[in-house]
Write a structure and sequence with these properties.
Order of helices and strands: HEEEEEEEEEE
Distance between the termini: 77 Å
Helix content: 10-25%
Shape: elongated
Number of helices: 1
Oligomer: single chain
Radius of gyration: 31 Å
Largest sheet: 4 strands, antiparallel
Strand content: 25-35%
Number of strands: 10
């Protein structure tokens, strides 16, 4: 039994915590929504209110980086899944990838004067891609593409990696047809 007139601290602390939490939320919402802007959407460095509403300056930790606004110029990176610099594209109709299931790579180019087949692909999670030369006849070259899947139940990261698979040929591809098939 508590003495008469005693204050219950736990519930009082809960109320104080709720009030402080609501105040912090209000401060965050006000700071995010009420910031003044100038020019082309860039944040203003002054803390003066913009149309009669008060704004509170917010300090950003130095570990947080802010990307500059887009400049309208095209990106300087090369597009992915295209013919790498120095490689040559196959002639139209020279590639037959019809035997490959969905999700297998189809982006192929030639390097080293046509003696190396270069396959641009994406691996996801624990899947591992590989490719090797199969039958090479005067009319066609077969490349076997394999996607090795992890054992059932293995945990895998959820990310995608760009990979380049290179397959040396015994002779330049030339005008021969390049056939991609699923490997063992």
């Amino acid at each position: 039994m508590q003495p008469p007139g005693a204050v219950l601290r736990p519930s009082g602390m809960r109320i104080t915590g709720k009030i402080l939490g609501a105040g912090a939320l209000l401060l965050i919402v006000t700071a995010c929504g009420g910031g003044a802007t100038s020019g082309a959407g860039s944040p203003s460095s002054s803390s003066a209110p913009s149309s009669g509403t008060a704004s509170t300056p917010v300090s950003v930790p130095s570990s947080v980086s802010v990307a500059p606004p887009p400049s309208g110029a095209p990106p300087k990176s090369q597009p992915t899944q295209s013919v790498p610099p120095g490689d040559t594209a196959l002639a139209p109709g020279q590639l037959d990838a019809s035997a490959l299931p969905d999700g297998y790579p189809h982006d192929v180019s030639l390097a080293n004067g046509g003696t190396v087949v270069v396959i641009q692909a994406e691996e996801a999670g624990c899947n591992k891609l590989s490719a090797k030369a199969g039958e090479q006849t005067p009319s066609q070259v077969v490349i076997l593409v394999t996607v090795a899947k992890p054992p059932r139940g293995q945990m895998c990261p959820f990310h995608v990696r760009e990979v380049t698979l290179t397959v040396p040929l015994s002779a330049p591809l030339g005008a021969r047809k390049l056939v991609l098939r699923p490997g063992p």
